[in-house]
């Protein structure tokens, strides 16, 4: 009878496995997309188990690194292009250029989308930009204009250089648009129209804390404006700021400059940190429009970010870039101050693969057995 019983249980197990996979294929079969642009957005929320178990809060990552070109900037680049198409600066099916000054992810998103939509990308960047980003832009076929690193007030600084290139092209009667992610409101608007509502739906409209860094300010402005206006309980919004950046003092104490430096006088507007994409000593339109939604800022050191990146990789399989690590450190600091069970969402902006030559060169040497207390070190 034992044989009969085990044969029966095998049969039942086999049948339920069959039923499970059938229901999966019926309900979750991914839709067919008409182009890579349709892969943008609707990024998942992932529970970060290690941080949640250690803090007693529920810490989730909004996986912007799942966008097709690997970062939240896909949303921005697409909205910039769609807005330019509405105003007639670009016409789908006809030649046109998108110009941008960027040392970061935006250029990669612009380059990918230009290929997908039939335009050409022209990216101005400082000549000390990391080798993997340069290689990516070149692989994507963008025209790359390398300029000497300079302050934003210098007419040859890379953002100004991109603007000049766009103006020169348009003055010749060729279609083109300057993406201008720092000042262009298509940036924060897409986070208000898409990223924010996604987080609302994914959390059931209930969230205690939202944490993001600030580069252009588009993400934190768009998402926090939406969440503050719509969530059942208004979440506390935290700007996670790397060392050397002025946002921390601006938000917490109303003064912008760390070292009494004047706006824009830095060699580049990226401040003195290993972290890329966030931290600025300059007030951009996309930041200014969202400033009042930010409740406080948490400062995170490079050392904490480097250790956190390794911690998330070995404990959760989350291989993230530097700004995501900054957000995760801020989440732990906040979680330790808030009540057990609080729900926290951080932005996971991009993956570690884009930071191999700089940030991960340090992070890879961190001991795999590092504890969360050693990561935070306070
Ligand atoms: N993380 C990374 C890796 C980025 O490239 C950026 C944008 N520069 C940010 C975070 C910050 O996003 P935002 O520009 O919307 O403030």
From TrEMBL:
Cite the Gene3D superfamilies for this sequence: 3.40.50.1100
Q: Which GO terms describe its cellular component?
A: mitochondrial outer membrane
Sequence ranges assigned to domain Tryptophan synthase beta chain-like PALP in this UniProt record: 37-350
- Alphabetical list of InterPro entries matching this protein: Cys_Synth/Cystath_Beta-Synth (IPR050214), P-phosphate_BS (IPR001216), TrpB-like_PALP (IPR001926), TrpB-like_PALP_sf (IPR036052)
EC number(s) per entry: 2.5.1.47
Tell me the compartments it is located in: Mitochondrion outer membrane
**Pfam families (alphabetical):** PALP (PF00291)
| Signal peptide residues on this chain, from the entry's feature table | none
Which cofactors? pyridoxal 5'-phosphate
Topology relative to the lipid bilayer, per the entry, is: Single-pass membrane protein
What molecular function terms (GO) are annotated for this protein? Answer: cysteine synthase activity
Family membership = Belongs to the cysteine synthase/cystathionine beta-synthase family.
Q: What is this protein called?
A: cysteine synthase
What organism does this protein naturally occur in?
Torulaspora delbrueckii
Q: What is the lineage of its organism?
A: Eukaryota, Fungi, Dikarya, Ascomycota, Saccharomycotina
Q: Which gene encodes it?
A: TDEL0D03030
């Amino acid at each position: 009878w034992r044989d009969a019983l085990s044969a029966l249980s095998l049969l039942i197990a086999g049948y339920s496995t069959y039923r499970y996979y059938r229901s999966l294929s019926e309900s979750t079969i991914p839709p067919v997309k008409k182009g890579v642009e349709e892969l943008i957005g609707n990024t998942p929320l992932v529970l970060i188990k290690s941080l949640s178990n250690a803090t007693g809060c529920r810490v989730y990552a909004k996986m912007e690194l799942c966008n097709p070109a690997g970062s939240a900037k896909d949303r921005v680049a697409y909205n910039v292009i769609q807005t330019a198409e509405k105003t007639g600066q670009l016409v789908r099916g006809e030649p046109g250029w998108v110009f941008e000054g960027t040392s970061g992810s935006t250029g990669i998103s612009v380059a990918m989308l230009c290929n997908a939509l039939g335009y050409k990308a022209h990216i101005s960047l400082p000549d000390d930009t990391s080798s993997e980003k340069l290689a990516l832009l070149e692989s994507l076929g963008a025209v790359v204009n390398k300029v000497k690193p300079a302050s934003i007030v210098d007419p040859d600084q890379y953002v100004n250089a991109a603007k000049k290139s766009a103006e020169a092209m348009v003055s010749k009667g060729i279609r083109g648009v300057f993406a201008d992610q720092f000042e262009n409101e298509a940036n924060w608007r897409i986070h208000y129209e898409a990223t924010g509502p996604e987080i609302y739906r994914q959390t059931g409209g209930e969230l205690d804390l939202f944490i993001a860094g600030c580069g252009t300010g588009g993400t934190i402005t768009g998402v926090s404006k939406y969440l503050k206006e719509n969530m059942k309980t208004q979440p506390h919004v935290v700007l996670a700021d790397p060392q050397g950046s002025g946002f921390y003092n601006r938000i917490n104490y109303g003064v912008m400059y760390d070292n009494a430096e004047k706006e824009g006088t830095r060699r580049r507007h990226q401040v003195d940190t290993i972290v890329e994409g966030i931290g600025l000593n300059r007030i951009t339109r996309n930041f200014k429009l969202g400033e009042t939604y930010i409740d406080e800022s948490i400062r995170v050191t490079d050392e904490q970010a480097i250790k956190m990146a390794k911690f998330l990789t070995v404990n959760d399989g989350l291989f993230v870039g530097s700004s995501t690590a900054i957000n995760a450190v801020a989440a732990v600091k906040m979680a330790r101050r808030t009540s057990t069970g609080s729900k926290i969402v951080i932005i996971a902006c991009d993956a570690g693969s884009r930071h191999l030559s700089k940030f991960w060169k340090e992070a890879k040497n961190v001991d795999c057995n590092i504890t969360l207390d050693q990561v935070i070190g306070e």
